[in-house]
Amino acid sequence: MGKYKQHDVAIKxxxxxxxxxxxxxxxxxxxxxxxxxxxLILTCYGGSTKKGNKFIVTELMEGSVFEVLHDKGVEIDExxxxxxxxxxxxxxxxxxxxxxxxxxxxxxxxxxxKHFEIKICDFGLSRIIDKHAPMTGNxxxxxxxxxxxxxxxxLYSEKADVYSYGIILWELLMREMPxxxxxxxxxxxxxxxxxxxxxxxxxxxxxxKLIEKCWHQKPEKRPDFPQILxxxxxxxxxxxxxxxxxxxxxxxxxxxxxxxxxxxxxxxxAALAKHYPxxxxxxxxxxxxxxxxx
Length: 294
What we know:
This protein folds into 2 domains: 2-60 and 264-293, Phosphorylase Kinase, domain 1 (2-Layer Sandwich); 63-242, Transferase(Phosphotransferase), domain 1 (Orthogonal Bundle), CATH 1.10.510.10. It is built from 10 helices and 10 strands. The chain has helices at 22-34, 65-69, 78-97, 147-150, 159-174, 187-192, 205-214, 225-242, 268-271, 287-293; strands spanning 2-4, 7-13, 44-48, 55-59, 63-64, 100-101, 110-112, 118-120, 127-128, 280-281. It has a 5-stranded antiparallel β-sheet with strand order 1-2-4-3-10. The protein has a 3-stranded antiparallel β-sheet with strand order 5-7-8. Strand 7 (110-112) and strand 8 form a beta hairpin. Residues 125-140 and 249-294 have low confidence and may be disordered.
């Protein structure tokens, strides 16, 4: 934790910075700097690529969704659960609109503020969506990885993020670790065979149906995030009809600072780092700065 221009900020330090690949590190900072949507994506203020002293400076949040869900002192009812589900879906929808797949979507990489609004962080494994370029196999964190990745299908798509979102919806429902009673090394085998965490029988039909659609074994059978948000909006409308006294969740519209761009090549984000000094990246140069350079 630190201060930047009178704001409290988080400083992501690395235990063994010398082991971090410079190109991948630059790519993460570049993506965080480019994907600017302060209502949905964790704001990156900068970072250092100095040898042996790598760090990233971001806005400070209350904690991760994982921490909140596992803190029994935090009350999460259906109202809050819907707010969180909508917030996460809107964030990933924006990321996909920028032609990016997160590839490591999990409750630990979703940060939450005191209003239960959620922002995505940790873009170290993100990739440009390219239906013709092979992806790296077996990336992500074991409990949230889609079956097609375990099957080494290297032409997987953004639907891998949808699978991970299905697991996160289950977490919002259960407040438990996915596959919590299962040995880690057996999870890939179970997932590729179609096994999933158990959904209790008393679960509301709309929740169980959405979860099952999102973690469907076949990627093409999974909804995309615009479709997921249509379902969530209907769930919210039904809930609010029964509970009109509760305020509606924040309208997760894009802010004026939002940039809806698309990266077209895998190395495009990393290449943008060339605009910056070798030791630091503070966001893409303005149009005025570009004119000065030319």
